[in-house]
TrEMBL record:
Organism: Triticum urartu (Red wild einkorn)
GO MF terms held by the record: heme binding; iron ion binding; monooxygenase activity; oxidoreductase activity, acting on paired donors, with incorporation or reduction of molecular oxygen
Family that this chain belongs to: Belongs to the cytochrome P450 family.
Keyword list, A-Z: Heme, Iron, Membrane, Metal-binding, Monooxygenase, Oxidoreductase, Transmembrane, Transmembrane helix
Gene3D superfamilies assigned to the protein according to its UniProt record, in alphabetical order: Cytochrome P450
PANTHER family: CYTOCHROME P450 71A2-LIKE, CYTOCHROME P450 FAMILY 71 PROTEIN
SUPFAM superfamilies with a match to the protein in the record: Cytochrome P450
Name by which UniProt lists this protein: Cytochrome P450 71A1
Protein residues bound to heme: C373
Lineage: Eukaryota, Viridiplantae, Streptophyta, Embryophyta, Tracheophyta
Amino acid sequence: MHLRLGCVPTVVACSAAAAAEAMRTRDLDFASRPRLLMVDRFYYGTGGIGFAPYGEHCRQARRVCVTHMLNARRVASLGRVRAQEAAALVDRVRRHAGAVVNLSDNLIVYSNTVISRCTFGDTDYGVEGGGGGGARLRKVFAEIEELLGTVPMGETVPWLRWVDVVTGLEKKTRRVFEEMDGLLERVIADHRERRRAGAATEEEGDFVDLMLDAEELDTGSIKGIILDMLAAATDSTFTLLEWAMAELINHPHEMRKLQDEVRAAVGPGAGAVVTEEHLPRLPYLKAVVKEALRLHPPTPLLLPRETLEDTRLLGYDVPAGTRVLIHAWAIGRDPATWGSRAEEFAPERFLGYDLKMGQDFAFLPFGAGRRGCPGVGFAMMSNELALASLVCNFDWELTGGRMPPVDMSELHGLSVRLKAPLLLVAKPWSSVSVDGVE
C-alpha cells in the first residue's frame, strides 16, 4: 500500500511476504529510521537504539546492548529481580482479594519496576523508595510516551510547524524534556559517584553501570538507551499482560486450561510460587502469550523504517527516502496465514508450532532483522512469569458479578492498550488442593 502522509511518501507492508522481503531479503535497504521531530528532541538527536538511523552509532549502541546488557547470562542473572517483582505483584493483588483490583495499574508497576531495577539498580529510581524518584520517573515517562505517539503538524507539513506552537505542543514538549533530562542527569551522576566509591562491579552493576563502562557511548546515547529500556517495559510487558488477561477473562475455557497447567506444575506443596524453572514445562502458557501477541502486538505499526537508497518491494519501485511501515497487526490477523479463525483467540494454534521469534514473518510483535528488538528474551521471561503467577494464585472474575466480555476498546499512542483500566475481582486459590477442592 502506498500513501503520502503530508509531504512524506510512505509504503505500508501488510503481508508476511512484504515483511520478509523488507526485513530479510532486502534488510539493509530498509534498515534505517526516519528523523522524527519528537525522537530528535527526547533522544538527544541519537535515536537511542530503536529510533536511531542506521549507521555506526546504531551498530555500536546495539552491540553494547546485546553483548553486555541482554546476553543470555545477564538475562538469567536478573531472575532474582523478576522473581521478587512477580511475588510483589501477587502480594499487591492479594491485599485486595475479594474486592475490586485495578489490574492495569498493578501491571504498570510490575513492568516498570522490573525494568527500572535492572536499569538503575535498587535505588530510589529502581524501586518505590521514600524519595519518590521511581514514581516521578514513571510519571514523566508516561508523558514522554504520549508525546512520542504524537505526530507534530510540522513533521508531515514543515511549513505548518507554527501550528505546534499555537496549540501548546512545543511548550509541553520543552517542559517534559527538561524534567526528564534533570531526572536522567541525576541518575547518571549518582551512578558515577557510586562507581568512584568502588560500589559497582560488572557482576553487580546495573544497565547504567554497563553503559558507563562502554567507551562507545556518550551521555546523550546513554540517556537515549535508558528511554528505550523504559519504553520496552511498557510496550512489551505491560500491554501484553493486560491484553492477555483480558482475553483470558473473555475465554473462561482457555483460562481454566491455563490455570490447570500452571497449578499442576507448581504442585500442592509448593506454596503456589511459580518460578522460572517451571516455565519450560508450561507449553500452554507460552501459547497463550504468543496468541495475545499475535492479536495485540504492542506496536501495531512497527517503528517506521526508511529506505537508504532506491530499491524494490514485491516488484514495485521504492525510492530512497521513502518511509516504510510494517503492519504487524494486519499480518498477525491475515486469514491467508492464520486461517478462517484468524480473528479468534485460540492459543492451541501455537501448540506444536516451532515458532522462532523474529524469523517467522507472519508473527512480528518484536520486529525482525537487524532492527528487531534485542530484548525479546528478557521480555518473554518477564511476561511468562507474571502471567503464570497471576493465574496460579487467583481465580478471576469481572466486577459486580458481570459476565464477560471485557470491553476491548483500544487507546492508541506509541503502543495500543485497553481504553478502560482492567478492573477485576481476584479470589485467592489454595495450593493445598489437588483436585480443585480448597
